[in-house]
Amino acid sequence: MTRRRKLLFGAAAVGLVLVLVAAPALIVRFDTRGERSTDPASLPHKQVAIVLGAGIRGDGRPTLFLRDRLNGAIRLYQLGEVDGLLMTGNNHVATYDEATSMRDYALEHGVPRGAITLDYAGFDTYDSCYRARAVFGVQSAIVVTQSYHLPRAVYTCRGVGIDAVGLGVPDWGTYPDGQMARYQAREVLASVKAMWDVDLGHPDPRFLGPHVQLNLQPAGEP
């Protein structure tokens, strides 16, 4: 085989790999195209807003990323678009408790305790969505996360049996471009895993556990 032909075959192989890696992200985006919005008022009423964890600071307060998600969910609750908030985050050690930090922020912003449910084992998007359905009995939800992540989050929740739509909160133009470029690139690979988990592998989450009752209290009700 000539050097030129080897180069052509090599380029074709690389191109095929890139297509195969990128295809799931495109499929996920296309599949959820009518189920996503950045306008809270445009979304249909659902049982809860699922707020996916995005880290806490050293002082235990939500990061800016997580704060944007919480603000979006709080707005949904205030508008009456959801009857409760499911805060799902990482609590792998006693000193790192995303869910409690999320609850405290919502309480500070006027959400009643009776409308908040905590999931301490939402270690990733799949676990959060799976546990929302299997542990907390969520039937319908508005998933709240940054817009770049939203297609995968909605796809995953719908794939585990939740009637889900999504609210996208700011990302590009709000955070540094370099940071967002890294997150967007990582999302391409994460979409491959999401399609495997939802459509083929169907793994159990790291922790399952018994049923937990959702706290639901529509805005304005005592």
Description of the structure:
The protein has a single domain, classed as Rossmann fold, CATH 3.40.50.620. It is globular, with a radius of gyration of 19 Å. The chain is an alpha/beta fold and 222 residues long. Strand 5 (140-146), helix 5 (150-159) and strand 6 form a beta-alpha-beta unit. Helices cover 45% and strands 15% of the residues. The protein has a six-stranded parallel β-sheet with strand order 1-6-5-2-3-4, with helices on both faces. The relative contact order is 0.18. The protein has six helices and seven strands, in the order H-E-E-H-E-H-E-H-E-H-E-E-H.
Q: Over the alpha carbons, how many angstroms does the gyration radius reach?
A: 19 Å
Count of helix runs? 6
- What is the spatial order of strands in the main beta sheet? 1-6-5-2-3-4
The name of the CATH architecture is: 3-Layer(aba) Sandwich
CATH structural class:
Alpha Beta
Q: What is the CATH H-level superfamily?
A: HUPs
Query: What percentage of the residues does DSSP assign to strands (E)?
Result: 15-25%
Summarize the helices and strands and which ones pair or pack.
Layout: H1 3-31, E1 36-37, E2 48-52, H2 64-78, E3 85-88, H3 98-108, E4 116-119, H4 125-134, E5 140-146, H5 150-159, E6 163-169, E7 171-175, H6 177-201
Helix pairs in contact: 1-6, 4-5, 5-6
